[in-house]
Amino acid sequence: MSGYAVLLRGVNVGGNKKVAMAELREMLTGLGYTQVRTLLQSGNAVLAADEPAAVVAERVEEALAERYGTEIRVLALTRADLEAAADGHPLRDVADNGSRMLVLWLFGEPPPGAPSPAELDPDRIVVRGGLIYQWCPDGISNSPDVAAFVRKAWKVPTTGRNWNTLEKLIGAIPD
Fold it and tell me: Which whole-number Å values give the CA distances from 48 to 19, 73, 149, in the listed order?
């Protein structure tokens, strides 16, 4: 068995793609996953599975599409994946508030030669591999919208979590 954090993209934000966490737990349990828990109301779950991460993500995406009639992208990440994202955060030493530090995961590769979202705010946005880190000292709503930039310039969706949520997910993943 492997433990995973399952991140749903864009649910329960601004009234879009409403997914009740009780329904999500029920659906994940119905797929045969164990130790299922949800965290917060923004599309975070943890579970144990006998499948690789890519299979978990694919099965959950298919079940969500069947249940809600819309595409909801999903990432399944191990504790090691999340710890690597946390350990690699290049801005964590300057940030003083976990709710204002973001990690965004990409659902694809940027096109060659594409502009970098770091150009929006080079001191507060860093791109490393399939992750984008952002520090928002004035609050998220007063910072560049990196996800929108990436969707438009790269045609790649993202899902992000703040530092506090990242730490909760790391601690909640089943062993």
Answer: 21, 19, 34
